[in-house]
Every structure is written in C-alpha cells, then in structure tokens.
Amino acid sequence: MSEPVLRVHELVTSFPAGRGRAAAVDGVSFQLAEGEVLALVGESGCGKSVTALSLLRLVPKPGRIESGSIRIAGREVLTLHVSELRSVRGKEAAMIFQEPMTSLSPVLTVGAQVAEALRLHEPMSAAQARRRSVALFEQVRIPDPDARFDSFPHQLSGGLKQRVMIAMALALKPRLLVADEPTTALDVTIQAQILELLRDLQRELGTAILLITHDLGVVNELADRIAVMYAGRLVEEGTRVQVLGEARHPYTQGLLRAVPSLGRRGERLAEIPGVVPRPSERPPGCRFATRCPVRLPRCASDPPGDTPLAPGHVARCHVVAQELAR
Amino acid sequence: MSVEGHVLANAVIALLLAACAGLAVVIHRSELWRAAAVELWRRRPIALLVVAVYLVIAALDSISWVGGGEVGEGGDVLAMHQPRSLIDRLFPLDFDEKSYSAPLASVEFYGGDPLDHPGRHLLGTDILGRDVLHVMLDGTRIALLVGGFTSLLVIPLALLVGVSAGYFGKRIDDVAFFVMSVLMSIPDLLLLIALIMAMGRGPLQVCIAMGVTSWVGFCRIVRGETFKLRELDYVEAARALGVSDLKLIWRHILPNLMHLVVITFVLTFSGLVLSEAILSYLGIGIDGSWGQMIDQARDELARDPIIWWNLAAASAALFGLILAVNFVGDAVRDVLDPRTLRERQ
Amino acid sequence: MARFAALALGLSLLAACTNNPYPDADQGLKILYRPLAEPPRTLDPAVSYNAAEHQITGVVYATLLDYHYLARPYRLIPGLAREVPHARRLPDGRVAYRFRLREGALYQDDPAFALGDASALTREVVAGDVAFQLMRIADPSLASPVIATFAKIEGWDAFSQRLAALREADPAFGQQRIDAQYAAAGGIPGVKVAGRYQVEIVLSEPYPQLLYWFTMPFTAPVPWEAVERWDGEEGRDFFKDHPVGAGPFFVTRFDRQSRIVLDRNPNYYGLRHPEWGAPAAVYPSEGEPGDAPLGRLDPAYVGRPLPFLDRVEYRIEKEDIPTFNKFLQGYYDASGILQESFDKMVHEGALSEEMARNGMQLEKSVDPDVYYIGFNMDDGVVGSSAGEQGRKLRQAMSLVVDSREFARVFNNGRGVPAQSPLPPGIFGYEADYVNPYRQVDLARAKELLAAAGYAGGTDPKTGKPLHLSFDLGDTSTRGRVRFQFFVNQWSRLGLDVEIAATNYNQFQEKIRKNAYQIFMWGWIADYPDPENFLFLLWGQLAQSKRHGPNTANFANPRYDELFLRMKVAENGEARLALIREMRAILERERPWIELFHRENYTLFHGWVRNVKPAGLSLPTARYVDIDPELRSRRRAGWNQPVRWPAVALAAGTLALVVPGIVTFLRERQ
Amino acid sequence: MLAYIVRRTAYGFVTLIGVLLLLFVLFFLYASPHEMARRAVGEKAPPEVLEQWIVNHGYDKPKVWNPEHPFDTLLVEHFRRALSFDFGRGDADGTPITQRLREGMGPSLALAVPSFVFGLLFSVALALFVAYFRETYIDRMGVIVCVLTMSISTLLYIIGGQFLIGKLLRWFPISGFDASPSVIVRFLMLPLVVSLASGVGGSVRFYRTVFIEEGGRDYVRTARAKGCGDLRVMTHHVLRNALIPILTRTVVVIPFLFTGSLLLESFFGIPGLGSLTVDAVQGNDFATLRALVFIGSLLFIGAQIATDVSYSLVDPRVRFE
Questions:
Q1: How far is A78 from chain C (nearest CA, A)?
Q2: CA atoms within 13 A on the CB side of A25
Q3: What is the pTM of this model?
C-alpha cells in the first residue's frame, strides 16, 4: 500500500484550563487512504473539531499542538516551515467548516474569495482566476455562476454559501478534504443536496475526505470507515458496517441507541446519561467510566488498550477486552 | 464654599453613604450581583482597595462644621469662621508657611529661613505656603464629586428617558432621539463650556454641565438595550398576559439594564475627572481640584532648581485614581458583560 | 512604495528636528525678535495707551518731538518738528506753542493715499495732519483715553460737543468723509494750522507738560486718507489694525493672533534725508557718563542715520515661560527675568557666571512706575461715601499688606516698597519718607477695623465676614496665586475678599464702566514729572466722571487745589512743599495701597547693541542694532538637539519587544 | 444612495436647528442678556452701564415675540446670523467673528488633520502589532501601557512634553506658530507628538480588541485554511472587516480632536479655533462662543454624515434606500 493521504499519530492538542493545560485531543492516531471517506464521530466537546483544526495547524490561540505527528501526503505537517505549510493548506488539504454564514468574509465578493484561493497557489491573471472560479461554481452546481461571482455572502442562502465553500476547498483539487460538520447548520433538504454534492465530487475527483460530524445519518450516507471519539481519544474504529452494525464499545452503542432511525425497534429511545467530562475533570482510567452503564472496577483507574475485534475494527474498552478474553 | 454650602454638602454625603449602603444590601441579596462582586474582588483587589481609599478620604473631607481650633496672633482669622472638614482637622489650623518648602524640609526653599513647622510638611508647601498634602487630599473630594455626584444626577434621568423612549417608542422616542442627536452633535467640550458659561462658574454648575454631556451616552445605551429587551420572548409573553407596562419595566427591563448602568458609570467616571482638569485650565473648573493644582504647578517646572512636589502630588493623585478606576472599569465590564459593550465602547 | 514613504517621513522628521522658530533664510538679516503677551487691542495712536502697543505705534508713527536716547535726566529733542517750541505767553494767561514741521518728510507707502491722488503711493506730512490727529483725540466717538489731557487746548471741549451734536442731529452726517466732518464742526480753535508746515497750539492756561505729549504717538501726524480708507467695511482692514505713519518702520504683516512684522520704512525722513541730520533720526553722540564704557557711544554708530535694523518681528506669546525659554535659546533678543529662573540668572545682584559666559548682558533700573491696589472711592463700602468708616477700613487694609514680602515671594525681592505714588528718579520722591500706613502692623489694623465697625472683620449687617470683591485683569492661575497673597493678608483681619478675575481687556472695560470695588493696577510714567503720577488721583480726571485715569475716583478738594498749583510750578522748594502736603492727604485717605516701584532687570544677548533701559515706555527699536552673524553662531551652539534619548527610547522598546517577536516566531515553526 | 444622502443631510440640518435652539435657550433665555452683561462688565456694575452694554451688543430687542415687527427679535436675529455665517462682532473686543473664524480655521486644520491622520495610522498599526502578538507578553505589556497612558491627564502630557522635548532635549520649538511652509512643520511636531502620546492609548486598546475579535472569526480561519499568510490575512481580511468599527470609532474621536486641539493650540500658541475658544471663555465672549459651538456642531454633523455614507464603501451589507 502506498503512503496514506493522511496519517495521524499520537496527536495531542491542549488548551489552558485553570492553572495548567488540558489536552482536548489526547493521543489520537488514525490514517486515511487515497479516495477514502473517514467519519470522525462523537458528541460535541469530544475533540473532533480540534482534531480537524490540528491537521492544518489551525488550532486557535491559546490552544497548541503538544506532540504527535501529522503526515499529509507524506509530509510532516507539524515541523513544516510556515511558508511550506501555506502551500499545503488549500493545495494538498482543504477544509470546509460548519458555519457557511460566518466562514466567508462579509466584505469581499464570494468570487474574489474563491479566486484568492486559486491565485494563492497558482500564478494566474485575474481574468483566468475568474474563469476558473466560475467553472468551479458550475461544478458545485451554483445556478447562474457568472452573476454569483460578484455576489457578497449576505446575498446568498446558506446552501449556496456552503457550495461556495466547497468550490473554494476543491479549487486546487486537494488530495484531502477535511469537512467539519458541513451540513449541521443547514436545513434538512439542503443537507441532503450538499451531501449528494460531496459524494459526487468525491467520486469524480477521488479526494479523500475526513468527515467530522455528530450526525450518524450523515455518516451512513458518506463514510467508508468510522472512528468514534470520546473525550479526546478514539474509542472505536472500523468500517461503516462494523461500527454501525456491530458496535462493541458501550459509548458507540449508546450513541447508536440515541439515534431514532438506527435504534432498534421497540426499545425506548435512550440517552447516554451525564455529560462529557471537562478536560480537567477526566478520570484517570477509561474516560467513559463515569457514564458507562457496564463499567468494571478497573475502568476508573486503568486506561484501556486497543482490542482488535476484526480486521480494521478496534475498540478500546476493558469490558470488550474481558468479553473477548472469555 | 459658602456657609450654607457645607451643610448641603454634609446632607449630600449622608445621602450618598446611604445609597452606598443600600446598594451593598441589594448586591448582597442578589446571587448574580454577589457573584459578580466576588469575581471583581478576585480579579482586581488592589485597584478596588485604591478606589476605596479615595472614597474614604472624600467622605471624610465632606463632613465639615464650623468652629474648633484656635489661631495664633497674626493667623488667618477668616479660617475660624469657615467650615472645616475631618480631613482639614487632621492638620493644624495655622499650618501654612510663607512660601515654598521642599518635602520634609526644615527651611524655606528660597532664602532658607526656618519654617514654622519644620519637617512636618510631608509633601512640602506651595507658593503660598499651603501644605501640599492637605491641598491634594482636599482635591479628592472634588474629583469624586465631579465623577460621583454627576453620575448620581445622570443615571436616574438617563434611565427614565432611555427606558421610556426604548419601551414606548413612537413620539416619545422621536423626541428623545432628537434631543440626543442635538446634544451629540455638539462636541463634548464645547457643550461643556457653553453650559458652564451660560450657567456661570461653580462646582454645581460644572457637575450639571458634565451631567448633560454624559447623559446622552448613558441614555443611548439604555434606549438601545431596552429596544432589545422589549422584543424578548418572555417580555412579549408577559405583555400578552396583560402585565402592566410599569410593572413590566420594573420587573423585567430595569433589572436587566443595571449591569449596563454600572459598566457605563465606571467607564465614564475617569473621563469626567479628566475633563475637569481641562476645564480647570480654562479657568472654569472647580476651585481646589487637582486640575487646578496641575495648572498652577506648570510654571514651577520652569524654576531652576525646579519645584516638582506640587505637580507630582497632584498628578500622582489624579493618575492613581484614574488608573485604579480604569482597571476596575475593565474588570467590571469583563465580569458583567463579556461582549455587548465592547463594540460600542 | 510604503518603504519610500517611511523613508521620506523619517528624513523630514530629521530635518524638522530643530527648535528654530524662524525660517532659515532669515538668519542673516538684522531682525529684532520680540514677544508680545497679548495681541494688540488697537494700533490707533489716538486710542492705544499701553506700553506694549506703544513699542509698535512709537516706531510706525513719527512724533513731532522725541527724548534724547541716552541723556538723563530726560531731555526733549525735535523729531518731525524742526525745533522744540517755546511757550509764548498770550494775554489772559493763555499760552501758545508753535511747531514748525520739516518740509519733505513722507509717509510710508500705502494704497490709502490713492484717495487723495489716484496715482499716489504716499504723500508729504503736513501741519494739517497734526491738527487732524488732535481732532481725532477730541472726537468723542473714538473714546480716546487722553481726551481730557488736552482739554486745556482752546475750544477743545466745545469741538467735541459740536461734533457729537452734529452726529446726533443727522445720522447721515456720520457717513461723510471724516475730515469733512471735522471741518463741518469747525475744527479746534486752539489748533491753528498756519500754512503747510506750521501749526500753533493755544492753551487756555499754562501746561508745561504739554510738550511731553508730543513725544508720544497720540499726537503723531496721521493721514486722513488712512482713517477713511481702512474702515473695516467690505473686507478692508480696520485702521486700528492697519497703521499708516511716517516713522522708521512700517507694518508689513499683521496676523493679530500670531505675528506682527515691521519692516524698515524706506520713506522715513532719517533714511531719505540724512543730510537733514535730524537729531531724532541719527544715533546720538553724547550721553550719560556711564554710556561710553558700556559701548553705547560706539563710533561705528555715532552720527549714523537710524534705524539700523532691517525688521522688527513681534510674536504673540501668551505664556511667559516658553517665551523666556526661547530667549535663553537665543530666539528672542531681550527679556525680563522670569521670576522662576531668577536664581539661575542673577547671583548677588549681578549676572551669574554661567550667563555671563554666554555673552549675556544685564541692565538694571528702577522704573518710573508705581504698582498699587486701589479702592473705588465711589463704592458704598470702601469708598468716600462711607465716610470715616470707609477711611478706617482702607487704613486697616493698607496696614496689613506687606509689599516687601510680596516682592520676596513673587519677584525674587525685586522692587522698591512704595510709600507714595512717586517713584525714585521723579522730582518729589524722598527716600527717607515713611508712610505710617504702609508699615505692617496687624494689631493697629485690627483696632482700626474695629473702630470702623467691622470688629474681627464681621459685617454687622450680615453677621458674616465683610465681603469685598477684588477685581482683576488677569485670569491666569499664576496671577490668581499673586492676588491670593493679598486676599490671605486681608483674611488675617477676617475680611472675606473674593477675587473677580477677567482678562485685561475686559478688566479695562470694567474699569471704564465703573463696575469694581478693589483693583490692582500699575502706572508707568508717560513723562518724567511728578504731575504724571499725582494726576492719577486728581478729582477732575476721575474715571467715573470723565473716563480719566483716576481709576480710584478719588476726589479731595484740597488735593485738587494743591495739584493745580503743583502742576505749573517749577521744580524747587515751593513745589516740594506742595507735593508733601498732597502726600499727607493720600497717606490719611488711603485711596491707594501703594505696593512697589518695579526694579527692572532686563537681559540682553551679546549680539544686541546700543541698548539702554528706558523707564518711560520709549520705543527703542530705532536705536538698537543686531549682529546676525554672532547670533546665528550662538544659537547654533546653544540648540544642539539632544538626540540620544530618542535612540535610547527606540533601543529600549526594541530590547523589550524583540525577544518576544523572536520567541513568537520560533514557536510558530 | 443619493436619496439617503439627501435624507441624512436634511436630518443633519434639523439637528443643527436644534443646536441653534439650544444655544438660544442657553444664552438668551437661561442666561439673559442682563446676566451676560453683568458677567462681562462686572457684578457691581450700575444698571445704566449694563443697559449700555446690552444696547451696544444689540441684545436689547424682544427675545421671541415682537408684536410690531414679528421678525425683529433676538430669536430671528440669532438664526439669521448663524445660518448666514455672519456672526457679527465679538462681545469682548469687537472684531468681526467671521473674520476670526476664517483666520483660525487654517492653523486649526494644520494641527487637527495631521494629528487625526497620524493618530489613526499610528494607533491602527500599533494595534495590529499588538494583536498579532496576542497572548504573548508583548500583548499584555501593550495593554498595560495603554491603560497607563490613558490615565494621564492631557494637561500633564502637554506640560511634560514642553518641558522634556522642548526645553531639555531641544528637538522642536517650545511653542509658537508660523504658517510659512519652511517652518510650519517644526512648530507642529511637538503638539503632534503630544497629541499622539495622549490619544494613542485608548485607540490602541480599542483597535486591539477589534482586531483580536475579528482575528478570531470564522472567515479568518477559512482564509488561513486556503493558504493565506499571516500578513495577507491581516491586511486583506482582518483589516478590511475591522474598517467598520474603526470608522465608528473615528466619529467618536472627531470631537476629541477638537478637545485636544483646544488645549494644544492654547498651550503651544497656535492661533486656531481652539485658542479662540479659550480666549472666548476667558474673556466671557458669548457671541464668539455661540459661533464656535455652532461651527463645531456643523463640522461634527458633517463628519457624521460623511461617516455614515462611507459605511457603504467598507461594508457591502449596508445599503441605503
């Protein structure tokens, strides 16, 4: 197998908390192959978005990446010089964000913002940039693309703005697209359209996508593989079928139970009791221990290790390990 | 200050103290405000203490009565007929020297004649031989009078106008808005000057003039916030349920404005005190203020050797107060309102 | 582009880094730089009556007579007149003076002269102009402060009244040309123009001091064209801002608020007609014994036509500290000593070594002036209508004012404590005279106050300390402190004196309108005669009655009678006796609290030549010369900017900030 | 757009009328001509002198209502004078006010314009710098320095500046003014430095907050994600967006320009409108003061309108109809 598009190893990203710092992402490792769609799922506050931002070193101050390794297309991002990093951003790996409303600068035309992305990486004239941008608009199915080029963000609907974001992200045909909750802020009908667009474009361009979401419906639509994250760590990872169909980690199971359409018929729609602990209040052992319905005594003190369940399917849970051992 | 003046001043100070006590009770009762106060104290204990010291000095300097004390032969007979405050009474009645003396000096600065009170003038004496420390302490009262008394005039008025304009809208709002835009379109200092010139010079006039100029800012913020609050769901719901306007304002609008009032008050305070210094230079400030001291002392920098203690004392006193208030102001804003006001500042 | 702009900005900053307030091109010119504390209110010679303004009007207008620059006691010499006229006794006790003007003296160039002759830029000074100016003084609409001084000229008051009546009767009359109006009013019978160059002044009674007035700008010839033309209408200047005279300099730039520039007048008779050898237009060849050693009789100057300067520049300098600092930097040529810097400048009565090294010169003189606190005698409390009570109050207040202490605190001890209005150097001043009410005696003052009915300073009517107002023409905090000194002294008596300060112009207005109680003022002699001081208290010149200079409105029949006799008496025992009696009246009545006679210390830079302190407000610019080369050299030496703090500040900031930047950038990798 | 400008100007005019009314109330109704006369001539002036003053200065007409000549009133006169810019003569020395205003305008602008422009550029640059290093000690130090400098009275800046820079270091003339192009710069330097020093603290602190806030917005992240460098982010994105609050602040600062100038002009002997104001205050010159307030408001209203209109230039979301 060739070098994966993205390889994350033992990533730790921290934020100040109280007197010290706490790791929002605490030793996360995963990789993403060419053309693959990996969904990173979890409740809000579990560190998904920070992981996504860490990939392009976009963690906002005062957060910072403490350790680990991030390789995009074989280049180590964390040690890149700032100027090289700039050439990775947008060209090798692009990002779309949750809020299309605020992710575009309100004082520039959307066309200018897309053209900027192009001209930052490839020398071209303004006219060329405009032509390419309009073509991109067409590609992301924006109606009347030429006129839209000169629109300001506030003149566009949310869906259109997200299409502009996608156009901007895919402008330079990056090998990796990080999509941070791309549909959360949109209406349900628009959500479907955007997902469809993403899927089509992914097939067309062969871009690998890291999809960050808490919506398992979206995951089901798009993802090849799924990684479940809880309190800064991955708790279960596997193919879509493995995780959605044969979830073993109690947290994943809880998540699935909380989704109406995927929950088993006849059972009460369940919620996971409690909330995600704050980074500074995490238990020393398994982080889910405080909320876990089936916890063992050792869960509170010993961090669980990887338990391989099937090829590509891993869970981190003492209970699963115990069951497996039995 | 005239003889009746000091009685009035005593009454005002009593009122202010009562208001402070009342405020303390209110703060203590309300969970939210108490938490804010605790947080404030945690963030800026030193600045708060400094402000408190100024307040105490001003309060002590505001309680005055006539009589007591004796002057020696050749002393200032007039002083015996004038009210003297608690602060004044910390100093002997006849504490003046003939002219300049350096801090803690035992002889006059020029000529070297022995002083009447050698080594007892901690900050020296000014050109007329007055104890600089005494003059400086007296200035505290003026500064706080300018800041505090003005706000006391302004806040109720601004609340009244701002809330009714924001809440009732229509004609009331039109009128209020017009008045505000008229006042706002006159540059502050010019308006101040015009008002003082029209009303005549004097402490009360200065306070009123400052009140009028700072009123607009208060009022604008209150009005805008009331607009917003009026549209809130629970207020609309209460109105739909037939709660009377007055009760609504009292229960839902006013309490939600208080944090803005507090923040604006603290933030305007330093501006007011600094403006007074400018007025003093123009000769329409309040007698005995630090601004006037600074203005007097600017000649002294030209002396050779220079006389620095007068300027230094007044500037330090002014600087200390403003700095402390500024720090407290920032903290108050952060504690009470992390966002809304920052954009308007 | 941005880099270029930054470079240009930096360079221009470097270039601007000099404290020279004058264009570099002016370095080589003989320009005398002088500060002016307030913009001149008026440069109309008929109205202007203050020392600073006279420095300007005195060189713009050429007077008929002048004082000898160096000789002391002061001596009259002819100016525009060919000789100093003698009094000619006429029947009925009248006296006449005949002035003969020099023929061919011209005014400065001015567009106003087109009014008389369309092609003219200037014209000759003629006798009619002298008469015209005298009529202007008499013109009631001008409110000249010296209108009463000339009342002895025959038909003076009648002329004033006729003019006023004509204007009153017909509003159109006032629209006529100004000289036509005067002609219609019939002129002043006592001012007779005889031919083109002669004018005779007839006085109804002897007034020997009259001649002194002809050294002052009041009586200098003024062309009617200028008055007519500069009327302030349709964007034209006012005559008071646009003087047109025949003097050695003329105004070429008048920015009221910032600067006034006087250039040498090429039409000046001294320059145009050196062959005349007019004594007032050449540098004198003799003086006091002390003048030669002090370089005031330098052969390089003696006998040369005046003026020597190219230009005189006045800058408005409202604050005297910056002004003095500029003097020290060499940007003003002469200055009084700032009280604040006295100790540095003067050491035991002489120039300090440091200053002497800088080539500075110190001139000391006691001015023929008197500073005093006056009571408005028309006032019901402190005035004469309060009778004995008022007198005792004034006496008590006089007894506690310690002028020696005042001089010590505020004037570095400069100033002679005044015992009477007469300063040293004026006939009638007696050094051994001691005024009993001018010796500080608190106990006596309290007794007198009690006798006046204000025991302990309490006003029996209100039961509170007696409230008086001290009206002053100085709003500065600096001035306030001074006045507070007196207030503090009076408060020792328990009197509550309030300071009511306005600016000087407003104060004059207040005085003019008799709206004051206690005031402080000074008088600088117009001419060296006791009459010029004692008339300040002559009842006929009361401010309230005739807008005269008797600001105290003092009116005492015996004093007035003595005054009239003293005025015309020759200096001698008889005159001294009269003065003594007048002095005794003042001593008892106390319309004034005499404070001090100023002791004047003036500093000059080494490049200023031919200076002689003149107690009278004589315009000196005519005689003074400047060595511009020496001035440039000294200025350059004194004003090297100290640059290291800028470097240090920049370095300090960098040292503080750079580590942060470095760390920041390193962390970003 | 044009319609908006017209409407905005019309309201500005109405406001100006309001200002005039206020002045009338203050100076004719509240402080009657009698009182003005008393203050100008003196508390103890006899009544006939007061009357004379009032007549001389033309304040002897009926105030609001004159049954015989309805337009011959102080109110009408007051409005006529202001709106025709013919302010008559000063109460203090009788010089035509309009002439003084015209003379004063030049020096005032010579100081106000550079101090405004440089102040803005300098504080924006400094704020960008500080905001760029946010969360480092440079930032924290910057904020503290800002608060410190804000807490010092303008008077002290001026006195200190004259003493230090003018007297001790001899960099520039201590005071004075001369409009000749060869020397004007050196006269303006010291007041400029002082005005920068006294004004910059508050501005930097405000702009820093703006920049940090804008710098944390989502579109900035987007720009970074597509490969914008820090500098480009700051200039193309943050600064462009921050222009709106900067503009708002500018309007707030304009009157302070006047305030600052007032002290500066008077201390440094610059014969502008500020000095004129100080003279008017000290000379109880009500007529001049009224004219100055009117002119000040006129300029300020003009500035407000200009600002409102220029919002449309920096913020496409603003549309006037």
A1: 8
A2: 29
A3: 0.80
